[in-house]
Design a protein that fits this description.
The chain has 322 residues and is α/β, with parallel strands linked by helices. The chain has a domain of 222 residues: Rossmann fold (3-Layer(aba) Sandwich), CATH 3.40.50. Helix 3 crosses helix 5, helix 5 packs parallel to helix 6 and helix 7 runs parallel beside helix 9. The longest helix is centred in the N-terminal third of the chain and has 22 residues. Bound molecules: uridine-5'-diphosphate. The site of uridine-5'-diphosphate has 13 residues, from helix 7 and strand 8.
Length: 322
Amino acid sequence: MRVLITGGAGFIGSHLTEAYLERGDEVYIIDNLSTGSMENIEFLQNDDRFRDRLFVHIDTILNHDTMLELIGICDTVFHLAAAVGVKYILDYPLESIKTNIQGTEKVLELCAKFRKKVLIASSSEVYGKHTHAPLVETDNIVYGPSSKFRWSYAASKLMDEFTALAYYRTGGLKVTIARLFNTIGIRQTGTYGMVVPRFIVQALKDDPLTVYGDGSQTRTFTGVKDVVRVFMALVENDESFGQVFNIGGIEEISMLDLAKKIIALTGSKSESVLIPYEEAYQADFEDMMRRVPSVEKVARLIGFKPHVNLDEILSEIVTFMR
Ligand code: UDP
């Protein structure tokens, strides 16, 4: 099979690329290296087993001609290219909206034209600021005002979902939507705000762990390898088309407890410090205080169960970063 992965040089994209190459498929990547990096995929490019099956295009997904060519020759498309990370969205608000809305529209338009299967990576941000748990795919959503830019990401991803579902309804596009909750694993960088790589780097340097707000906000974390497994299974299942699926972890943990856990795991001399949100982000920042998925729907369709628990994933990342 020939697979196109937009954002293939990113954290999740590079793991998906590796999995398809290991399976014997051909992988085409398009990535503008805005948050992805060649380091994420160099080990694959240098692997003799994959040399003639991995094709990397450094370009933007907004380039119509490149996308026309790539989608034309591939069987299945994974659309992962997007502005990612709360910090990145706040630093580059316009670019983020354009990439997320126009980029996804381009991918969907061409997948519809060539009748190709496509998985769109959406985000748990779409749920907005709920505090109930677990979040179910059919839940209502609640956003803050447009003066709070964090919500531009949620709104743009929601628009991506609507566009995908409209292509499904009007033309029968084989599109699956994956709402990703916090995903972690090796090669994820803390540069754009992601909490786990940031805490681990801080702990390994014996620096203070920067817990934002009062640290009571919670998340669940999934290992990237579990996410990749689910992606691969979903596109093979015709019943996933026109559907939205949560993909996420099941162990809820507060950021203060996460910091404690990472300090213990690394044997670090660090301590946690509380940093007010307005210092960490911007004056008008609003956090999501709780984010826990229901994974029943994806479990029903493909039997999803996380293979590894939080301690195991964190230990793997710690070993890698050391
Ligand atoms: N966070 C933190 N310290 C950091 C980075 C993030 O306490 O150095 C918090 C952040 O405010 C949020 C949670 O960790 O409540 C997860 O943040 P991340 O950016 O990883 O993902 P999000 O769930 O916000 O998309």
